[in-house]
Amino acid sequence: MQQRRGPLGLTVIGIAAIGIALTGCTPAAVEPPSVTWQSGEPSGELESSPWVQAVRASDTALSIAAFTRDYTSDALQDTTTEEAIDTAAQWQRDEAKADRFFTYPGPVPMIPLSVDEQGDEALVTVCQAKDWYLDADHTSAPELTEGREVVYRVISDGDSRLVETESVTTEECDISDASIALFDPQPDPTETYSPDDVKVP
Known about the structure:
alpha+beta, two-stranded antiparallel sheet
């Protein structure tokens, strides 16, 4: 789901990291945050679709992985394709190598627009918030001013549905009514870390 974009990089997706400033020692492990909806959980007519729920679960898991710098969690493996996980983890490492550090204030806000079932797969199109990230220059959750359409491919795999990004379009959309969830605690986007601190599968 490399459409998840931070500065100078790709969202959607969701996402990034919390760490201890590099002082020659290894940063402590970062505990996963809880997720708190600010004005109630999403309640649109497509929210009950298991395909949409899979997209939201994957996005949340990816955002938390970026927050904790740990892409090995069961929540991530159970919701996201191996290729999408590898891409997100490598991207975060590459950004850190270039001294670019970002994180997410919460899961990426989105509004599901359509679900196109195709046998054991489905294409889920959402309106997703652009520039949903924090860094040293943007230290609080951004306003929902711009949205773009993103298409996710969801693959049924036994009891699981695994998600990856199909395409990030240039189509603009109205994101203003999206429900917002934030992490608790909020990350400190001014902190830095080594590329090797990003834990990969």
